[in-house]
Amino acid sequence: MKLLLINYEYPPIGGGAGNATFHIAQELSRLHHKVMVVTSRFNNLPKKEQQNGVIINRIPVIRRRAESCSIAEMVAFIFSGLLFTPLIARRFQPDAVIVFFTIPSGPIALLLNFIQRIPYIVSLRGGDVPGFMKQELSFYHWVTKPLIRLIWRRAIAVVANSQGLQELARKTYTHKDILIIPNGVDVNLFTREEKRVSSHPKVLFVGRLTSQKGVDVLLKAVSEITNQLPELQFTVDIIGDGPQRPLLETMAKELRLSEIVRFFGWQKKSLVIHAYKSADIFVLPSRDEGMPNVLMEAMAAGLPVVATRVAGNAELIEQGWNGYLVGVEDHNELAIALKQLLLNPQLRDRLGQNGQKKIKKFTWRSVAEQYLNIIRKKVQK
Q1: Domain 2-184+363-378, second-level architecture
Q2: Comparing 2-184+363-378 with 187-359, is the CATH topology the same?
Q3: What is the gyration radius of the CA atoms in the chain, in angstroms?
Q4: 123, 127, 256, 349: most buried by Cβ count inside 10 Å?
């Protein structure tokens, strides 16, 4: 088949959803399908190129940063996509389209469906579902909800990446069965050759520095640990960038954590993989999640994980078996969980091994095949 994937983010720009699009595209190509991606042009990235059999078309947009995208920049992607993608699709003649994010990618697929009768699947990623990140996105969800419902109604399938996201989507649209296809992970890419034994453990966070990710709660928890156990030697490495970085760096200084908490900014994938392999504990104190790739990558690296009890996280972590779930905004509970792991290397090793066992079934090949099965059932009748 010929398959067109649309996402406003695709490596080297973007976060987890871009990463998912990349791996699904690669696996679809390995399964001998012809795959094309439409995504955003950024800096000196080529307008069109081929990577391991996947054809990438980058359309002109307004985008200032690799790691984040504003609402206005998303709107720019919509208009550019509506203008350029119909011609790209007419030349490529795809059998089906997979769009990542209802907004901003969905309207492009909707137009292709209207004018060229191309069927499409919507892959929900979190922020595109009304009710997700209420404080930040409630107004935008209210404005776009009629369009979201139309995009979902016209799709051959709507897919969530976690049970929690599925339940949230059902509150917006009850007339369609929302399917679940969880994210995958390349276990071999993150597995370290030797066990890490450290008397100076390293806590790792990877993600966008936005309110959603809760790094401010992490800093409060670290401050509490240092006040209770000033002799405990450990570091917290924060990889990622975003609008909250200056605020978080100031907060770390005010809490006297400058020697413990280190901000590394946005890093290349190879360096992020190295960070996983050299860490001892992974933490994700998010206020909302879909199915976080970073949590799966940390588990693939054999790290014990501490994360908030929200959608996606709760489907990956079994309390006390491969990590700990803590309350959202609860820096006290987060501090307790981190202390347990910081003080007990045997516990870290046991939980990390269990997580690695659990995550092995989450492969990108399986994800790609599940999308293909939907297309075969709905399109190739």
Answers
A1: 3-Layer(aba) Sandwich (3.40)
A2: yes
A3: 21
A4: 123
The separation between the first and the last C-alpha atoms of the chain, rounded to the nearest angstrom, is 14
E strand or H helix at 235:
strand 235-239
Name the residue type at position 55: I
Task: List the domain boundaries for the chain.
Answer: 2-184+363-378, 187-359
Three-point CA angle 206, 184, 82, nearest 5°: 85
Residue pointed to by tokens 């946005």? 266
Q: Tell me the two tokens of residue 193.
A: 């050759």
Contact 239, 272 (CB under 8 A): yes
Residue at 341: amino acid letter: L
Alpha helices in the chain (DSSP H): 16-30, 71-92, 102-116, 134-154, 163-172, 187-190, 215-228, 245-254, 269-278, 293-300, 313-316, 331-342, 345-359, 364-378
Which mean pLDDT values do the consecutive 10-residue runs of the chain (381 residues) have?
Answer: 97 90 97 98 95 97 86 95 98 97 97 97 94 85 94 97 92 91 92 74 95 96 96 96 94 96 92 94 94 93 96 92 96 97 95 94 95 91 55
Sheet holding 323-326, edge to edge: 261-265, 235-239, 202-206, 281-284, 305-308, 323-326
